[in-house]
Design brief:
The chain has 321 residues and is an alpha+beta fold. It has two domains: 133 residues, 2-Layer Sandwich (60s Ribosomal Protein L30, Chain: A); 163 residues, PurM-like C-terminal domain (Phosphoribosyl-aminoimidazole Synthetase, Chain A, domain 2). The protein is 37% helix and 23% strand. The protein contains eleven helices and eleven strands. Strands 6-8-5-9-7-10-11 form a seven-stranded mixed sheet. The longest helix is centred in the N-terminal third of the chain and has 18 residues. About 2% of the residues have low confidence.
Length: 321
């Protein structure tokens, strides 16, 4: 395929953005935003991120979800998106169409404009995304203080199991396996959760998405805020918890050392907690409290909610080269 053919496929499947400052589908795009710009760059490669059985459409959509997840964690509104597509020799027209349709699926879900990007040759299919958001009051990672409440917007462990199920490393009952693999292949963007963070910016002291795993995310919040965390409740659904125990898997490993859940991990001022819970509920999503911010450093788990406390070993998803 030639570069122009790829561009025409993406434009045909996605369409161009609607910014009033657009200068046409050009090498550079003009974009008008409200408030402060919140920008995130992310990349996906076929060898690292496209699991067995994952379609190119799912791969393209996930690049959008991944790109905007960090933007939404700041409480920002999705605005626009650009993508650089690397294609290997011999890729078919149908595969490129599926990639473009996946990107279109994600942008439609998030309500963001497509502003273009770049196409180039690559040893493997790769997608590098640039997600733009806007916020009057973006929430960072460095505001957590001792006494703040730790909250998460969903359960953990499904992607830990899903990766292993996709590679045939674990065997699960069919309904659980389908749910776990879907969590990896078709993650949900935290759109209503991000809206709630944007509304509650005064009461949310720090926020991040959990794409690198719950433990790694807490460590990053702790390093930025110079605090530690005491976790007193394990956010694993009962259905998955019992299955993990039957498999001989420690639920702590599945909950803390997975990744790509795309849930939000927040610290909340105690006086804002009731308001925060109601704000999330009003959008049809949950906010679950799992612990508190403490002085010091590290992530500490109190077994059984009130038993012995121990520091969790460092870990989570991280690229190696």
């Amino acid at each position: 395929m030639r570069e122009r053919e790829v561009i025409e496929i993406f434009l045909g499947e996605i369409g161009a953005g609607r910014s009033p400052l657009r200068v046409g589908f050009d090498d550079a795009a003009a974009w008008e935003f409200r408030g402060k710009a919140v920008v995130n760059v992310d990349s996906m490669t076929e060898s690292t991120d496209r699991l067995p059985g994952m379609t190119y459409r799912q791969f393209g959509r996930k690049s959008v979800v991944q790109g905007f997840s960090d933007v939404l964690a700041k409480g920002a509104r999705p605005e626009a998106f650009m993508i650089a597509v690397g294609l290997k020799r011999g890729v078919s027209t149908g595969e490129v169409v599926q990639l473009a349709r996946g990107v279109a699926d994600g942008l439609r879900e998030l309500g963001a404009d497509f502003l273009g990007g770049d196409v180039g040759a690559s040893p493997e299919v790769s997608l590098t995304s640039v997600a733009f958001g806007s916020s009057e009051h973006p929430v960072g990672r460095g505001g957590a203080r001792p006494g703040d409440v730790v909250g998460v917007t969903g359960y953990f462990g499904w992607t830990w199991v899903g990766y292993r199920a996709a590679f045939g490393e674990v065997s699960l009952p069919r309904p659980l396996e389908e749910r776990a693999i879907k969590a990896v292949m078709e993650p949900s963007p935290p759109l209503p959760e991000g809206e709630a963070v944007g509304e509650l910016w005064e009461g949310i002291s720090s926020s991040a998405d959990s794409s690198d795993g719950l433990l790694r995310t807490l460590e990053e919040l702790g390093a930025a805020s110079r605090v530690g965390f005491e976790i007193s409740w394990l956010p694993v659904e009962e259905e998955l918890l019992s299955t993990l125990l039957e498999m001989g898997v420690n639920p702590v490993d599945a909950a803390f050392y997975g990744g790509e859940e795309y849930e939000l991990v927040l610290t909340i001022r105690p006086e804002f907690l009731d308001e925060a819970v109601k704000a999330f509920e009003s959008r049809g999503v949950r906010l679950m409290t799992i612990g508190r911010v403490i002085e010091g450093e590290g992530v500490w788990l109190r077994e059984g909610g009130g038993g012995e406390i121990r520091r969790l070993r460092s870990g989570g998803w991280e690229h190696s080269f």
